[in-house]
Design goal:
The protein folds into 2 domains: about 290 residues, FAD/NAD(P)-binding domain, CATH 3.50.50.60; about 150 residues, Beta Barrel (Elongation Factor Tu (Ef-tu), domain 3). The longest helix has about 30 residues. The chain is an alpha+beta fold and about 450 residues long. The strands form 4 sheets. The protein has a 6-stranded mixed sheet, covered by helices on one side. A 6-stranded antiparallel sheet has the order 10-11-12-13-9-14. The chain has a 3-stranded antiparallel sheet with strand order 3-5-4. The mean pLDDT is about 90. Helix content is about 35%, strand content about 15%. The structure holds flavin-adenine dinucleotide. Flavin-adenine dinucleotide binds next to helix 1, strand 2 and helix 11.
């Protein structure tokens, strides 16, 4: 190995594999610690690096009209190992990128093993890294081993690390029908106008409520996987369909209670129930449905939620779910270089930072690897602009999202600063998406030049 001190990467999944590759390609030696096969998880089956634990899809590959496709584009442009190996082992899947998982993982492993600046050590890191590891990337994923999770929690505080995500569906603001919904906080509470109008309310009459409950009770649900429920999740985050099964009025006295609200579209009519949505990002482009975590299957979820008045044409930035997932309260804990504020030698990447999905996790690995390598070489590399897919994600998790309600996030156009010139509507949406991706590609190319210059200057 070279005279430059190594970066230690903990976890050889999507994020850790990409981070190790990027740092090594920038000329910095890496020691990659992966606990499998010595210690396993309930979801991984192999000892391969970058194992895909469930579906074999990297989702849409459309880099002109889709935010995930754009993220693919940015990772390819950035010399991403995970994307290169996914492309090399792609399976026919229409507009999506499906991957032949075992050859893909074997190829990522072989590339990392063959890199002259990378050493792979097998075994669990079961405590905080020793003090002489001066640059560490923790990429241990949603199933971080309990011992390491506890150690990280000890560094932060009780509420800093979560073991289950309870995700309420998130809706694009511009798809909400404001002729039915209205802005108002319960009892008009709040010091400022913004606080008094912090919620969007969707009213239901009795017939609509009863039909909604019937649909909820009949909807298909996803099951927990074996081993997934070894940590209790039921405090304060019951799925709505479970609440409905406990009694037809449970939701009306819970997240759908109609009190303290007056519908300006029909002031004389008291709603029988009200669904509330709350702003989910600082830009105000995304709203989450308050208290609506659910295990309904995605198809059923879309159908049932579109029964809510005002959400008939809702476009979902992400659907709800409840899963085993270890993740940090990143908006509070991490700076924009993905460093733990309380201990900056520790940087985080992947799903543990509160992004969700193979592609998003690998993308955060790419960023962490490049930023850590630049730092090792005496340079400061800022994250990409927020107009790019990677930049918008990193901005969301490290500050754009509300820390109090933070839940994992997929990349989506709702995270991007709006384009002023292009207006709404279905036709407008396609134009807008193309506008986002054109702007992102130009800005990401600029950032890559900066990133490469920062490595070359040393
Ligand atoms: C059951 C399940 C199903 C999922 N299905 C999908 C899906 O279909 N599609 C999708 O996009 N995403 C899915 N995800 C999310 C998926 O895990 C992430 O998208 C992606 O794998 C996260 O990448 P990562 O690198 O952050 O974590 P991982 O890929 O999980 O990698 C983390 C690595 O760290 C290792 N590790 C953990 N603790 C330690 C330690 N203390 N010391 C050393 N090594 C350690 C693990 O063995 C693992 O190899 C699923 C997650 C789970 C749990």
């Amino acid at each position: 190995m070279s005279a430059i001190e190594p970066i230690h990467v903990i976890g050889g999944g999507m994020a850790g594999s990409e981070a190790a590759w990027q740092a090594a390609e920038a000329g910095v030696p890496v020691i990659l610690h992966e606990m499998r096969p010595v210690t396993g998880t309930f979801a991984h089956r192999t000892d391969g690096l970058a194992e895909m634990v469930c579906s074999n899809s990297f989702r849409s590959d459309d880099d002109e009209n889709n935010a995930v496709g754009l993220l693919h584009w940015e990772m390819r442009a950035g010399g991403g190992l995970v994307m290169a190996m996914a492309d090399a082992h792609a399976l026919p899947a229409g507009g999506a990128l499906a991957v032949d998982r075992d050859p893909f993982s074997a190829a990522v492993t072989a590339k990392l093993e063959a890199h002259p600046l990378i050493r792979i050590e097998r075994g669990e890191i079961a405590a905080l890294p020793p003090a002489d590891w001066s640059s560490v990337i923790v990429a241990t994923g949603p199933l971080t081993s309990p011992a390491l999770a506890e150690a990280i929690r000890g560094l932060t505080d009780e509420r800093a690390l979560t073991f289950f995500d309870a995700i309420a569906p998130i809706v694009h603001f511009d798809s909400i029908d404001l002729s039915k919904a209205w802005f108002q906080s319960r009892y008009d509470k709040g010091e400022t106008e913004a606080e008094r109008t912090a919620y969007l309310n969707c009213p239901m009459d009795r017939d609509q409520y009863e039909a909604f409950i019937d649909a909820l009770l009949a909807a298909d649900r996803a099951e927990f996987r074996e081993g997934e429920t070894d940590t209790p999740y039921f405090d304060g985050c019951l799925p709505i369909e479970v609440m409905a099964a406990r009694g037809r009025d449970t939701l009306r006295f819970g997240p759908m209670k109609p009190v303290g609200l007056t519908n300006p579209h029909a002031p004389e009519k008291k709603p029988y129930a009200v669904v509330q949505l709350r702003r989910d990002n600082a830009l105000g482009t995304l709203f989450n449905i308050v208290g609506f975590q659910t295990k309904m299957k995605y198809g059923a979820q879309t159908e049932v939620l579109r029964m809510i008045p005002g959400l008939g044409n809702a476009a979902f930035a992400r659907l709800g779910g409840i899963h085993r997932n270890t993740f940090l309260n990143s908006p509070r804990l991490l700076d924009d270089r993905l460093r733990l504020r309380a201990e900056p030698r520790l940087r985080f990447a992947g799903q543990i930072t509160g992004v969700e999905g193979y592609v998003e996790s690998a993308a955060m690995g790419l960023l962490a690897g490049r930023i850590a390598a630049a730092e090792r070489l005496g340079r400061d590399l800022p994250p990409p602009p927020e107009t790019t897919a990677m930049g918008s994600l990193v901005r969301h998790i490290t500050g754009g999202a509300d820390a109090k309600t933070f839940q994992p996030m997929n990349v989506n156009f709702g995270l991007f600063p709006p384009l002023d010139a292009v207006r709404g509507g279905r036709r407008g949406r396609r134009e807008r998406y193309k506008g986002y991706t054109d702007r992102a590609k130009a800005d990401f190319t600029g950032w890559l030049a900066l990133s490469t210059a920062s490595a070359a200057a040393v």
